[in-house]
Amino acid sequence: MPLCIYLAPDKKFRGRVLRRSNFHTSHCYDPMSGTPVFVMNTAPERQSGRKAQISNITAAKTVADVIRTCLGPKSMLKMILDPMGGILLTNDGNAILREIDVAHPAAKNMIELSRTQDEECGDGTTSVIVLAASILASSLSQLERDIHPVVIISAYNKALREALGIIDRVAIPVNVNDDEQMLGIVKGALGTKFVSRWSELMCKLALDAVHIVAQNSQLTSPESQATSTFSSTTPTIDIKRYARVEKIPGGSIEDSRVIRGIMLNKDITHPGMRRRIQNPRIVLLDCPLEYKKGESQTNMEFSKAGDWARAQEVEEEVVKAMVETICQVGCDLVLTEKGISDLAQHHFLKHNVSCIRRVRKSDNNRIALAVGATIVNRVEDLRESDVGTGCEEMRVDKIGDEYFAILAPCTSPRACTILLRGPSKDILNEVDRNLQDAMSVARNVIMDPRLVPGGGAIEMAVGVGLAQAAKRGTVKPSQGKEGTKENIITGVETGPFLAVAEAMEVIPRTLVQNAGGNAIRVLTELRAKHTSSMSTFGVNGDTGKIVDMKEYGLWESASVKVQILKTAVEAARMLLRVDDVVQAVRKERESGGGAPMPEEMMEAQ
Ligand SMILES: Nc1ncnc2c1ncn2[C@@H]1O[C@H](COP(=O)(O)OP(=O)(O)OP(=O)(O)O)[C@@H](O)[C@H]1O
Ligand SMILES: [Mg+2]
C-alpha cells in the first residue's frame, strides 16, 4: 500500500500522513524548496474541470443512444448475448442497460437511474434515460457559454418545481374501480411492448392480479403498519411478493391465466396420497417432520442387547407422535418448509393426509395469506385456528413435464399466481417483464389516481410551460412565498431554464423519429398547439402524426411522469456538480484484461 506524506502549504494538512490504496495524479509544491510533492499516483486516469464535465455528458448521451430506439410503440428490440451464451430479447430500458458492461462512471450512474425508476415505478425506464441525457446535453451549451454549474443547477431546481406544478395542472383524476378505464391505461403501457399483440389478455391478467393483491393491502394488518413508514391510510401493493409469475414453456400465450390462489412447482411426497382434495384443511409448518438427530457427533452406549432396538423404537414413536399431534386438528394437507421422513409420510398416508415438503419460505407466506392459515414452527403449538380452510380445491396437475400443486380457487385469495405459457423460455421471460410493467402501471394508478396525456403530450406541455415561465421571469412559488429569490428566474438562469424546456421535447421527438415521421415539422406544429393551451395534443406513435390524446385515448400515470422528471433532473444536477473524475483502483491493464478507461470510451465514439 503506497504511503504518502502530504506537504501542502496549508497548515491544516502539513505533515499529515494520508493512507489510501491508490491515489492519482496530483501534486503541489513544497513552499520551502519549490520541489513538486506528489500526493496521488501519477496515473493518467484522471479528468478534471471542463474535460470531466464534457466526458460525463458524452457518456450519458452514449447510454441514451443505445436505448433511444426502444421508446414508444414502434420500438425496436435488442438482442443481448450474455457471457454464459444465453440471449436476452427485450425493449425494456432497464433490462437492456443492466446487461451492458460499461466502464465510464457517468454511464454507470445513468444505468443506476433506470434501475431506480424500475424499482420505484416499474415503467418509464427508457424515458428517464433519454430525458436525463437530453437535459445534460442541453446543459453543455450553457457550460460552453461559461455559465457556472451552480447557476445551471439552481435554474434546474426552479425548472423542476415549475414542471411539477404544470403536471399537477394538467393531470386529471381517474376512477380506479372503473375496469374499462383501468384497462385502457394498462393497454397504453403495454402497447409499447412485445406482448402488444396479446395486449387484451395481458391487461386483464395484470389488472386481475393487482386487484387480488390490492385487497390484501386495504386490510391494514399490524405487520404492514409496523413495516410501513407511511400513514396507515397509504395502501402498499406488494406485487413482487404476492403476485408470483410461474412460467411454463409450452402451449400458447393464450393459455396464460391468473390463478386465484397458489401454484407450486411441487408434487406430493408419496404416490399413494390423494392428488385431489375438495375443501382441504391445510396445515402450514416450518419445522422438519423427522427425528431430530444430535447436532454434532452423538455416542450412545448400550448395556443390554435389546436397548438398541428400543432406541430405534423411540425414534419411531417420536415421529409417530408428531404426526398424531398434527392429525388431531383434522387436516387433509400438510405443507412444510423442511423435510418429511419416509416414516412420517407412512403415518400421514394412514391418516389419509397428503403432504408436500421443502416449500419455499416465500411460497409458504403466500399460501398462508391465500388460504387463511398460520405458519406454525413447533408441532406442539398447532391449534385449530391455525388451520387454513379458505381454499376450495387442492389438486396436483401435470403441466408440460412437471407436477404442480394448485391450491385454488380461494375464497379471499389476497395473493395469486399468474401462469404464463408460451413458445420458448426467452419469449416467456420477455412476456414476464412486460407483465411486470403492466402490473406496476396498474399499481401506480391505484396508489396515485391521476392521469396525464401520453405520447409526449405532457412533456410538450411541460416544455411550453417552462418557456412561458422563463418569459414571465417567475416560477410557481414554493410554500406560498411569492416574489422571493427562489421564485424569480434571474437573467443568467434564463438560459439553463430554457434549456430544460427544450430538453423536454426529446420524448415527442424520439416518438416521431421512431415512427418514421418528420420530427421538425411535427414538433413545430405540436409546439404551436400547446402554446394555444391545447395541452392534450401529442404524437401518435404508430403514424408519427399529431393527435388529441382525449380522442386517441392514451393516458399514463402521473406518478410515473413525476418520478421520471425528478430522477432525470436530479441526475443532471449531480453530474454537473462533478468536476473531477479520479479512478481509485488502478486496473491491471498490462494483462490485457480490464475494461477500457473513460478516455478510450470517448475516443471510440
Ligand atoms: N400508441 C402510442 N402513441 C404514442 N406514444 C406512445 C404510445 N404508446 C406509448 N407511447 C409513449 O411512449 C413512451 C413510453 O415508451 P416505452 O414504454 O417504450 O418506454 P418507457 O415506459 O420509458 O420504458 P419501459 O417501458 O421500457 O420501462 C411514453 O412517453 C408514452 O407516452
Ligand atoms: Mg413503458
TrEMBL record:
GO terms for cellular component: chaperonin-containing T-complex. Gene3D superfamilies: GroEL (3.50.7.10), GroEL-like equatorial domain (1.10.560.10), TCP-1-like chaperonin intermediate domain (3.30.260.10). Keywords: ATP-binding, Chaperone, Cytoplasm, Nucleotide-binding. It comes from the Eukaryota. It holds the Pfam family Cpn60_TCP1. It is found in: Cytoplasm. GO terms for molecular function: ATP binding; ATP hydrolysis activity; ATP-dependent protein folding chaperone; unfolded protein binding. Belongs to the TCP-1 chaperonin family. Molecular chaperone; assists the folding of proteins upon ATP hydrolysis. Known to play a role, in vitro, in the folding of actin and tubulin. Heterooligomeric complex of about 850 to 900 kDa that forms two stacked rings, 12 to 16 nm in diameter. This is T-complex protein 1 subunit gamma. The lineage of its organism: Eukaryota, Fungi, Dikarya, Basidiomycota, Agaricomycotina.
